[in-house]
Design goal:
The complex is a heterodimer of chains A (453) and B (90). Chain A is an alpha/beta fold and 453 residues long. Chain A has 15 helices and eleven strands. In chain A, 37% of the residues lie in helices and 13% in strands. The chains are: A alpha/beta (453), B mainly alpha (90).
Chain lengths: 453, 90
Amino acid sequence: MNILEFYKGFLEKKFSALEITKEFLAKKDDYNAFITISKDLALKQAKKADKMIAKGENSVLTGVPMAVKDNILVEGVKNTCASEILKDYIAPYDATCVKKLKELGAVVIGKTNLDEFAMGSSTENSGFFTTKNPCDIERVPGGSSGGSAAAVAADLCCYALGSDTGGSIRQPASFCGIVGLKPTYGAVSRYGLTAFASSFDQIGPLTKTAEDARIILNVISGKDIKDSTSIGFKDKIDVNTAQLKVGIPREYFIKGIDPKVETLIKQAIKKNYDIIEISLPHTKYALAAYYIIAPSEASANLARFDGVRYGLSKPEKDLFKTYLKTKGTGFGDEVKRRIMIGTYALSAGYYDAYYLKAQKVRTLIKQDFDKAFEKVDVIMTPTCPSPAFKIGEKADDPLSMYLADIFTVSVNLAGLPAVSVPIGKVNKLPVGLQIIGKPFEDHKILEVAKQYA
Amino acid sequence: MIPAEHIAKLARLGLSESEIKKFQKELSSILDYINLLEEVDVSNVKPTYHPFESGTVIRKDESIKEDPDKLIDLAPSKKKRYIKVKSVFK
């Protein structure tokens, strides 16, 4: 059921929020989507929701069961980031987006699995376990919001929150055959999201339909005093989707893309639009720039896990050795790898060659989009070059894993909104179409997405 | 060659010898890929540090009441309402 179907069911008294919550809590998590089930909170919220419904004070989200990626804080519930270093950390407050949803009576079923600190594309980097793709259990659900995507696809919740730094909402949505929206940078407050790369990170919804994504975005977006990068945001639905001009960047249809994916994507676009070929000439450099900037920001952000204020602590003889032991024990391989890359790129003598260079390339990538959007209203691409890969297939080769993000990172470099919608299957595996919009035209791309899901 | 041991020390990461070796190899191949950026001409291009530069965001200098004990309670080692830290100065 999607959000509006739940809403209708509550209004028509087909079921109560408590009944629904109990039903969802009793479901078996066959795909290892969840790290924590927040049973007490869910039941409490369900009772509150039923009171709201009885008084006629409910919104469309009241009583609807949902899940939260385990790097977004829910007060009183563990927030592990799938890391040993935060294994026992209990969130002391709600993230702004969670607070807004809870006020409307949303029922948080639990916290979902991810690649440790959202660094990865498959959930194989989770410090605890790998989530399975509900469409094929031998395959990854994508990542890093793989737990959220699997939970929605397997109907363990109606919708879920995720975070997207380089594709972490869109890529798993594509692999699991659902809708995933990365809003414009700043549209949703990041307060309460564990920081990975602060100039890229955005919270967004993973849903069954584009309409559901629009409903969630309208609730969680807006200016927040606790995130100085958040920007006020208004809903616009008066979009004539039939008249939009759609651009297809030729740099996204090159060697390396699965030909069946390419055919399917082009068919899906042609169904509704004439294709206008455009060029984003610096596409080739996006991934390299991203894998300098994101680890650089991460190396600064993750310095906070010092074994002193919260999280894992491994006391040694002196402070320096305590740091070494705490971080060395608490972080997994991929997190260590990225801290190393970032520290290297920011270190004396390398800053100009790596970090500054990458930030300049970022400008060129942003300018590519600015120029393209002078000619077209939205840009369409495949979300990923191929459908979900097998568990273990890329696990031993970090670089090949990074290449899974090749079609999604540019959007984060430029801060644009983008949504992945399921448009069909290749070899029984879902394929996602990525729709990219101008800054703060999130609603426009969602209106376009509604034609597909 | 990447001075992995030095970088790990800068990052306060305690790594074993085998980890140092492994990362040295992996980081080299990742940096080889990143060297692709060398072919881009960025003369006269300004860096982008943030997607939408919004300048300095300020608010009124008024205190917001929050319960600090909830945060202090999370510290692994404490005495009353103080967080205990290993001595910083010798």
